[in-house]
Amino acid sequence: MSNRTSRSNDDREAVKRKVSWERPTMLPTPEPRAGISYRWIRTSTLGTTDNKNVSSRFREGWTPVRKEDHPNLQIVSDIDSRFQDGIEVGGLLLCQNAIEKVEARVEKQLDMAQSQMEAVDNSYLKQSDPRMPVLNPERSTRSSFGK
């Protein structure tokens, strides 16, 4: 009798991969759907409800995502949630909106920012003191870390 183990057993153990583990995220991401954008909206901070924020986001077109629409998220919503059919975690409510509305909002905000920059430029470049000529306004931002 020999005390040898077969090579097939040794090979299987050598090929076997180490099991990895990742911490689950506190706010899971729902499966993407065509034409829908998702966002977590603040409903409360430190136990104080934030009705102003919720109302503002609802007026922008965001609507709560229903638990039944995403059963794969496996979320236990907040116990005292005002949105019983929704997905709420730690004072954040998962909401959805049409991508067209989200893109239109971003475009509008960029237009507003651009018009504000033009107004600042017009005011800045109007200065007529010859002792302080304005050559080229510099629009660069620099960030440095360390030395």
| Class computed from helices, strands and strand pairing | alpha+beta
**Got a strand count?**
6
Radius of gyration: 28 Å
Percent in strands: 5-15%
State the shape: flat
Helix content, binned percent: 25-40%
User: Uncertain runs with pLDDT below 50, 5 residues or more?
Assistant: none
Number of helices: 3
Straight-line distance between termini: 71 Å
Q: Can I get a quick summary?
A:
Helices cover 31% and strands 15% of the residues. The chain has 147 residues and is α+β, with helices and mostly antiparallel strands. The strands form 2 sheets. Strands 1, 4, 5 and 6 form a 4-stranded antiparallel sheet that branches. A two-stranded antiparallel sheet has the order 2-3.
Report on the structure:
The protein has 147 residues and is of the alpha+beta class. The protein has a domain at 37-98. The chain has three helices and six strands; from the N terminus they run αβββαβββα. Strands 1, 4, 5 and 6 form a four-stranded antiparallel β-sheet that branches. The chain has a two-stranded antiparallel ribbon with strand order 2-3. A hairpin with a 2-residue loop joins strand 5 and strand 6. The longest helix is centred in the last third of the chain and has 27 residues, at 99-125. The model has no long low-confidence stretch (mean pLDDT 79).
